[in-house]
Write a structure and sequence with these properties.
It is built from six helices and seven strands; from the N terminus they run H-H-E-H-H-E-E-E-E-H-E-E-H. With 174 residues, it is α+β, with helices and mostly antiparallel strands. The strands form two sheets. A four-stranded antiparallel sheet has the order 1-2-3-4. Strands 5-6-7 form a three-stranded antiparallel sheet.
């Protein structure tokens, strides 16, 4: 509780209340004493759509009532497709749960991965441009890809980010 309270106390009022929940492990572990979090990015729920579609199709095939040996093969195939869809949903959940994106007063911080961890940090004074790429569905559902370009390097595309324009505005407007 004390850690969560300390973490929440370092967040300004402008950070949405939903972001004030549980502490982000990597971001809080690398946060400097003179640094506060300006914004927290999260992955959009759209990451689940592929897996859910495959799961529904697999269940639909598995529940088809065809008599004979062919029906058994079709139901087994549907069950395997549904299992694949379930694995895709689980993978999306792990990716969403283990991706951390934060904009602080000093840096942009990104962490991905559960077992295999990939991190990237860029000082705010090194940020040259922030690109947002949104498809038609991305604009309708408010998600997109953010690419942070800086002096000499950059942070690779942060895909399926919810409300990417707000996150970009936090990085650009200091």
């Amino acid at each position: 509780r004390a850690v969560a309270a300390l973490w929440r106390s370092r967040l300004p009022r402008s950070v949405p209340a939903i972001s004030r929940g549980l502490p982000m492990s990597y971001v809080t572990s690398v946060l400097r004493p003179d640094e506060t979090i300006l914004a927290i990015g999260r992955m959009h729920w759209i990451v689940y759509v592929r897996g859910v579609v495959v799961l529904v199709v697999g269940l639909g095939i598995a529940l088809v009532s065809i008599e004979g040996a062919a029906g058994g093969v079709i139901r087994a195939t549907g069950g395997l497709i549904a299992l694949l869809g379930l694995l895709m949903v689980a993978r999306a959940w792990v990716e969403q749960a283990t991706t951390e994106i934060a904009v602080t007063t000093k840096r942009v911080i990104q962490k991905r991965g559960l077992i295999w961890r990939k991190t990237a940090e860029m000082n705010m004074d090194k940020v040259e441009s922030v690109l947002v790429d949104q498809s038609l569905f991305g604009r309708l559902l408010n998600y997109g890809t953010i690419v942070v370009r800086g002096t000499g390097s950059g942070i690779e595309g942060l895909r399926f980010i919810a409300d990417p324009l707000a996150l970009r505005s936090t990085m650009v407007v200091r």
